[in-house]
Amino acid sequence: GKIIKDVMSRGDLGIVEKGSGKNDLQTEADRSAQRCIIASLTQQYPGITIIGEEGPSTETDEVPSDWLITESDPEVLSKICPPEYITVNPEDIVVWVDPLDGTSEYTQGLLDHVTVLIGIAVKGRAVGGVIHQPYHNYKVVEDPKGRTLWGLVGVGAGGFTPVDPPSDKFIVTTTRSHSDGVVVKALEALQPDEILRVGGAGHKVLMLLEGRAHAYVFASKGCKKWDTCAPEAVLEALGGKLTDIHGNHYSYAKDVQYPDAQGVFGTAKGVNHQSLVDKLPQELRDAFPY
Ligand SMILES: Nc1ncnc2c1ncn2[C@@H]1O[C@H](COP(=O)(O)O)[C@@H](O)[C@H]1OP(=O)(O)O
Ligand SMILES: [Mg+2]
Ligand SMILES: [Mg+2]
Ligand SMILES: [Mg+2]
């Protein structure tokens, strides 16, 4: 988070177009935050698989020593770890890193849409996640400290206070920078009272966790495994659900294809996920085959 803020305050974002479609940018903040996270995790956990959005690191990728994070969150360490995670083999663990989610919005100054996502998959299932929001409350406080949410399926979550969505209306959140005709068709099928178009997969799941929307619906193949692993784990640790638009969980095993090719469908705790999925017309679902 600090690296992301430092790049922004220096003013030269170093934007590169990744060229794989519209609004697919990378900045110096994406590159540096990924080097920090991957170097820190690799040093502490050499036996696991770590996959980052900005590609594999190179041998020349020395990071400054003060970028190597070694401390742990005492709140998390005070919890009792479920036995299935204690005995898990490092080979069965994949960590999916999105060093900066919401890059488009970052370059446009919509800073609270930005999150840092670190998702932990065990045997292909997204079970652990950290969502760091470096600019949380930046419009209200002068020098925002940011906040860090975490969740582990079977343990719970922390770093924030969950809120239930309102019961008198139905609010859906979706993309603001990667929309198209199919994305809109899916929203229309759900007949929401309100649509909140905001950036970032992490940020949209925050909207579900804080009761600002009931569902996150993106009928498009633009998201990738690092966008959804951490958000899925935190959401599900608190009783929500995140799947593809057919209602099936993605695998986050090390050999999967990166795109979330069947879209994203997330719901807050207490929302009937399957009955919302069932509202999508068959012809729309047919556009997202396995
Ligand atoms: N077409 C796309 N090309 C590249 N990235 C995408 C695309 N669609 C979604 N994403 C990624 O998923 C996130 C959520 O999408 P959206 O904000 O449109 O709802 C984006 O911030 C972006 O992650 P990132 O910013 O990490 O590259
Ligand atoms: Mg990106
Ligand atoms: Mg992302
Ligand atoms: Mg990213």
Automatic annotation (TrEMBL):
GO biological process, one term: phosphatidylinositol phosphate biosynthetic process
E.C. code: 3.1.3.57, 3.1.3.7
Entry-linked SUPFAM superfamilies: Carbohydrate phosphatase (SSF56655)
UniProt key word Hydrolase: yes
Reactions it catalyzes: 1D-myo-inositol 1,4-bisphosphate + H2O = 1D-myo-inositol 4-phosphate + phosphate; 1D-myo-inositol 1,3,4-trisphosphate + H2O = 1D-myo-inositol 3,4-bisphosphate + phosphate; adenosine 3',5'-bisphosphate + H2O = AMP + phosphate; 3'-phosphoadenylyl sulfate + H2O = adenosine 5'-phosphosulfate + phosphate
Cofactor: Mg(2+)
Keywords recorded for this protein, A-Z: Hydrolase, Lithium, Magnesium, Metal-binding, Signal
InterPro entries: CysQ/Inositol_MonoPase, Inositol_monoP_metal-BS, Inositol_monophosphatase-like, Inositol_monophosphatase_CS
Positions with a binding annotation for Mg(2+): E53, D98, L100, D101, D227
Molecular function GO terms recorded: 3'(2'),5'-bisphosphate nucleotidase activity; inositol-1,4-bisphosphate 1-phosphatase activity; metal ion binding
Enzyme superclass (EC): hydrolase
UniProt record similarity statement: Belongs to the inositol monophosphatase superfamily.
Record's protein name: 3'(2'),5'-bisphosphate nucleotidase 1
